[in-house]
Amino acid sequence: MPLPAASPTMSAPEFQGLRDFIYAKTGIFFNESKQYFLENRLQRRLGDLKLRTYREYLDLVQGGAGREELKQLFIEITTNETSFWRNPPQIEAFQRVVLPEAVKLARDRGATKFRIWSAACSSGEEPYTLAMVCAEAKDGPLKGLQVEILATDISERVLAQAKQAVYGSYTLRNLSPAQLQRHFTQQGPDQFEAKPELRQMVGFRNVNLVDYPAYRSLGTFDIIFCRNVLIYFDDAVKRKVLQGFHEQLAPRGYLLVGHSESIHAFNTGFELMHFSKAMGYRKRG
After folding, report:
1. Is 41 in the active site?
2. What domain range includes position 49?
């Protein structure tokens, strides 16, 4: 099929069809102001697939033959900007307050394993940051406990990057030289690989946050991180995601969301916790 001379333009009906399909599959909602963003992200896919219109692309991903392209669609529409030690006040609150308190609760329940869920983990910077904190607490609060950090994302591509655990200096910029030396091995001029101590704590799994029944298969967690994700969901999806988190948290477990995100509008069963320059939530009861 010959390609058109110029890149196709996304019509309003095509945008609405794609928007509704993406929302049903991911919970991510694009309002009308995002039409150009979606067109820009998918323009190359039309060329690669030799499709003439966005309607043809929608027909492809809706059909059984489009399963592999659906994975590519998830890659194109998700934003994966992240870094180690992102939002330092919140990580410090996790290190100094949340982790010790959650560990005490776990020990009081007689637990031998301490579990953290990093939801929408992108390329792994967040779960490995949490692993760094846990590694530094292994002879303190975490002594004698097995640590398990489950990192999940909708994108198989970023999960593959996370499993490699190799990063450049830009994403590592918030770490001190001592942290970098302790937790990473330099593999090249600008390549640093997480040491085995970190990697063995972190497991990865492909999870779509709107696949609510899948939450139960993940087990119970002492702490859940879901930062800078809820902003992409409408209220109906947020409510279901938060309900799922609530169900998978241990009694009085902690939920940490992005610093610009709030769940106070939802009757979620969480209480707000104030820390120094940061906040989080704790499961009631």
Report:
1. yes
2. 12-77
